[in-house]
Structures are given as structure tokens and as C-alpha cells.
Fold this protein.
Amino acid sequence: MNKNTPIRELKGVGEKRAQLYEKIGIKTAGDLIFHFPRRYIDYSEPVAVSYAEIGSHAVIKAMVVKKNSAARIRKGLVLYKIFAEDEGGERFTVIFYNNRFAADALHEGEEYLFSGKVSGNLTRKEMNSPTVLKANEENLLRPVYPLTEGLTAAMVTANVAEVLRCADASFFADTLPDEIRMEYALSTLEYAVRSIHFPKDSHAAELAKKRLAFDELLKLQLGMIMIKSRNRTENGCKMLPKENEMAGFYSSLPFEMTGAQKRAVSDIIKDMCGGTPMNRLIQGDVGSGKTAVAAAAALFAAKNGFQTALMAPTEILARQHFKTLSEMLEPLGVEVCCITGSMTKKQRTEAAERLSDGTCFVAVGTHALISDSTEFENLGLVITDEQHRFGVNQRATLAEKGHNPHKLVMSATPIPRTLALIIYGDLDISVLNELPKGRQKIETFAVTAKLRERALGFVKKQLDEGRQAYIVCPMIEENENELAAAKGYADSLKKTVLAEYRTGLLHGKMPAAEKDSVMAAFKAHELDLLVATTVVEVGVDVPNATIIVIENADRFGLSQLHQLRGRVGRGQYQSYCVLIAGTVTEESRQRLEIMTKTSDGFEISEYDLKMRGAGDFFGNRQHGLPDLKIADAAADRELLADCQKAAKTLIEKSHDLSEYPALKAEVEELFTRNDNAAEAL
């Protein structure tokens, strides 16, 4: 059997099970072997019935003493009840629903290890549908796999065992150079693959995970280095230093640039005057002044005779950037134009003409910038805001409108340094870690739903003082209608102390023109209160808004809460954020408490990463990189550092990995599975 053997050809896998496997991306025997356990059940230390806590998971060693006959509770539901007794004579009940096979596999007088969640009460404890091992089994560390409905752990375990029994050498062809494996004390690939599924003990499982995670992170790092090196083409837009121009820009601003902003501008100027095109990320917390840095970069490009294109993910944000850049650059003689989808054909044609004849030096817009009708006379700088919201193809199409232009990426999403090195491995990074003078700390409170009425009373007080407010309505369920949920919440406010205020509604299903109209009305203070979904997360700037209430805050990631909080505190008034928890658990309490204690987005993102792991950090994984199957960027930081060193060593020996053809092929295959990353490679 080789890695490419179709999954349906495995012994015990029919057409129906093959379809279930395909639901979780498994089509071949190789896919199955690299479908790793997410954790293990350790059966080696069972507890007595009396020590098994209700509501928690436990392993109990007990003998089956009685089996009841099957009982049909209602149509389509059959219950199988088994009574077991531990060594101390304490009994508990095992219940299976619609699983005659599991019930028939247990025999009276025999001892088993039962693993599952304990329910019932102090005098009668139960386990519903536990996993079961015979007490005399030798291997007591058992894998738990990601599954889909209809596919059981026993099925996957049996199929994996069959593949490993029949596997040929193709499964274990080791592409990692021996010198790297020895230097970092890594096991062979065959040992790792066999031990990740059926480890002899926890130490074997750790060795296996270390090797497989190392492979994953190393290939990711090598891929990113190769992308970076391929981006390092000859600089067709090389510029000449004009420091005096920047001094004039700084003095023209109505505020003082922070040290971090000036350092970022220096980095950008150095890059644009270098021998290869710039590829830099400006990573800044909410309100750190990224747009001013972008304006400085665009001015520097203009003074060198080059045009700039700034692409934003939404029309609201594009128009906001257009306004800010116009205010900063047009007094200095640099014309700025805007191109968005909602403009009339005449407006877009006029703007496009000014770009193509070189009259306009800065174009701000949405993906409308990449349309065939938009041409530049001399595009030298491409800026994308919140890059992960664009596909690689969109960014590449914009860059192709110039000749190897410089690329600047802005992101307000605070990302821990370790994760940034993975996600933005092909970029140089500048961090804006200082807030401009005058920005006030936003007072943040976390409360339960019982205090909602008081929270709304606090909102009323702010509105009575002439301020404005946001309420982010409950997070939408996957199958729930966003319009109905948002509108329903807005209607419910008519029964509260906020009934008399002018209220607007903003949600993601609205046409762009309607969103713009609502935001314009809110900014002009024609509305007092804006009920919104998370569409307000990025880019809305209303200095008079001083309070934001976020419902069901426990269901948001902390970094997203931080982004939402950044919608207030943008003016001269003290601002507030009220987080209302829908469900209170110890974990949610701790998470929301972090929000009340710090306003440092990077500190919050570190905590968020530790709590949720890299896989969930972005929610919908939009950053365009291959998924991590076994490595964890939060937990494997030392391993990531080792992988970066190893990748550097390999690239220094062979810049294109041609001396390691098998490893190179695996790196390219990993990135080819992901369309966005494949485009870059």
C-alpha cells in the first residue's frame, strides 16, 4: 500500500465511509496517516467511582455486573443500560443510545476501562456513551481524532492501524536532512508517524509531536523565505533620499508624530531607496497613526515622481482614508483621488483619467482600483490596509499596474510577534507601539446580562450630554439571519430608556451605498445611537462617539473586542466600553477581565493566542497560509525559533533548496494545496 492508495480501497472502508472521510479532507491512505490525533485519553490512572467528579471527564476501572435488556424509549431511540462495579464495590451505570454493537461488546464478569463525562448525582453516577478498553490492554494511551458525524474513533483507529500494517516505504520517506535532525534531537519520520497514532507512553507521543511539528513549521518558514527571496527583484522604482521633504511634512501636521511613527517612516524611506522593492508591514494598535505613516510614504513617492495606490477592504474605510490623506497631502501639492464601486461611471472615468495622465499622484479605493479601466502613469507604491481581507490575486493584480512597485501593508489587528513571523514571514515589520498624544484610556467594564438596564442607563447619560454611542448587537449564529437579528435588537431598544433617541442600523448585508449613508448620518450627528454588527470593527471614525456596548461579549475573540473598543476614544472626551457577558463561565470571566485591565492590543493578543491557539486566532482563516495540522504557534515558540534557525541554515547552503530536492518538493506541495500561498510561490 502506498500514500496514494484511495481511501475506499482500504480494508473495512466502503463507499459510505469513504464519503465520510472525504468530508474531513481524507481521500488517500497518506491523508489518513497525516490526520493526526488532537489529544490522547490516558487510561493508565483510573479513579474509583467515589472520586469521579460529576460534570468532569474521568477514567473508571470496573467490572460489568449486569446488563439490562434493550429499552425502546421512543420511536428511533433505543437505550442500552449496563451496571458496573469498581474494586471497592461502588457501582455506576453505563448508558449507550442506539449503539447495540457497543453494548454487546461488554460481557458480565469482565473488567473494562470506561472513559467519559460523569453525570448523575452523588448516590447514582452515570456515563453516557463512554469509550471503552479491556482492562488487560497493554497500550493505555489512545488517540482522539477530529471526526465527523457517522465516523467513530474506533473506525479511524482501526483504519489507521491497517494502513500502518501495510504501509510501504513511501509513507516514511524522510526529506529532513540528517544534519538538521541530529542537531535538533529529532526522531526519524517513521518513528514519529507510528508513535503519533499509537504511542507506547506519553514520552513517545511528545517525541512524535516534536518531530512532526518541526517538519510543519520548517516547511512553512522555508516557503515564506522563498516567497520573500522571489519578491527581491531589481528595484524598478528606486527613489532618492529627500529628508527635508519629510521635515516639511511633519511640521505641516496639526499634531506631533510619535517616535514609533517617525521610525516607521525612516524604515520605509530606506527600503524605497534600496536595491530591491520594499515589502513592509506596518503593524499598529488601534489609533496608533498608521494612516499618517502611509501619507508620509505617499508624499515621499510623489516627490520622487511616483504614484501611490492605497486599497482598503471596505468603502467606508476607503472614503475615510481618502479624507485623511487629502487633508494631509493636498496642502503640500499632492492631489488625491478616490475610486470605489459605488461611484458613477462619470466620476470613475474622471478619476481614472487623472491617474493615467499623471495629474493625480495618490489613488485611494476598494478593489475597484484593480479594474481594467484604472491605469497609472507611474505607479511606484502599493499600500494595502488589513491585507488578510484581500486575496493574493487581488494584491498581485494591483501591483502589476506598476513595474515592481514598493509594497506597504497596514494592519490594526494586533498579532503576537511569534505569529506575525509565520503569517507575515515574507515581510519586514515595523511596529507602532506608541499612541499619539491626547489619546485617552478607554474605561472598560465587564458585566453580566443582569446589569444590562444599568448599562443602557449609562448610555443614556452620555447621549444626554450630547455624545453618541454604539451598541454591537449579539453575535450572529452561523445559520441565523443577520438582518433579522440586528433589526430585532434595534426594535427591542424601543422598550428601554433609549427609546426616544435617533437610532440607526448597520449590518453586513446592507448595500455599500446604504452603509455609507448610515455612517455619514452618524458622523454628522443626525443619529445618536448606532446599533451594529461587527461591521463597525474596522475603520469607523466618529470623535463624538464616547461609549460602546458589546452584547454577548464572551463569544468574541479578545483581539476582536479590542478592535471594537477602538471605535470610541477617538476625540477629546472620556470614553467607555461596556462588555455584557451572555454566558458566565470561569474562562469567560478571566478573558473579559483581561479587557478591563489593559488597553495594550499586543498584550491582549498574546493572551488570546494562548487561550484559543493559532488555528482560531483569525476566525475565518483569511491570511492565505497553509493550515497547521499539529504545530501550535502559541505553545511551540521554542520549536518555532529552532525552525527559523534551521531554515536559515538550509537556505544559506542552498538558496533555492535545489540541493534538497525532496524537501523542496514538499515545501512547494504544502503551499500548492492553498491557492493564495501557491500564487505567491
